[in-house]
Amino acid sequence: MAIYKGPTEDVLFLLDDVLRIGRYDNLPGFTDAAPDIRRAILEEASKFCEQVLTPLNRTGDAEGCARHPDGRVTTPNGFKEAFRQYGDGGWMGISAPVEFGGQGLPETLTVAVNEMMTSANMAFSMYAGLTQGALAALIVHGTPEQKATYVPKMVAGRWTGTMNLTEPHCGTDLGLLRTRATPQGDGSYRLTGSKIFISGGEHDLSENIVHLVLARIEGAQPGIRGVSLFVVPKILPAADGSLGRRNSVACGAIEEKMGIHGNATCVMNYDGAIGWLVGEENRGINAMFTMMNGARLAVGVQGLALSEVAYQNAAAYAKDRLQGRALMGARFPDKVADPIIVHPDVRRALMTIRAFNESARALVLWTALQGDIAHRSPDDKARQAADDHMGLFTPVIKGVLTDIGFANTVVAQQVYGGHGYIAEHGMEQFVRDSRIAMMYEGTNGIQALDLVGRKLPKDGGRASQAFFGEVAAYLKAKSADEATNGIQALDLVGRKLPKDGGRASQAFFGEVAAYLKAKSADEAMKRYVAPLAGALGDLQRATMWLAQNAPAAPDNAGAAATDYMHLFGLVGLGYMWCRIAEAAQAKLSNGDGDAERMKAKLVTARFFMERMLPESGAHLARIQSGAASVMELPADEF
Amino acid sequence: MAIYKGPTEDVLFLLDDVLRIGRYDNLPGFTDAAPDIRRAILEEASKFCEQVLTPLNRTGDAEGCARHPDGRVTTPNGFKEAFRQYGDGGWMGISAPVEFGGQGLPETLTVAVNEMMTSANMAFSMYAGLTQGALAALIVHGTPEQKATYVPKMVAGRWTGTMNLTEPHCGTDLGLLRTRATPQGDGSYRLTGSKIFISGGEHDLSENIVHLVLARIEGAQPGIRGVSLFVVPKILPAADGSLGRRNSVACGAIEEKMGIHGNATCVMNYDGAIGWLVGEENRGINAMFTMMNGARLAVGVQGLALSEVAYQNAAAYAKDRLQGRALMGARFPDKVADPIIVHPDVRRALMTIRAFNESARALVLWTALQGDIAHRSPDDKARQAADDHMGLFTPVIKGVLTDIGFANTVVAQQVYGGHGYIAEHGMEQFVRDSRIAMMYEGTNGIQALDLVGRKLPKDGGRASQAFFGEVAAYLKAKSADEATNGIQALDLVGRKLPKDGGRASQAFFGEVAAYLKAKSADEAMKRYVAPLAGALGDLQRATMWLAQNAPAAPDNAGAAATDYMHLFGLVGLGYMWCRIAEAAQAKLSNGDGDAERMKAKLVTARFFMERMLPESGAHLARIQSGAASVMELPADEF
Question: Which candidate in A107, A441, A482, A582 is catalytic?
Answer without folding.
Answer: A441
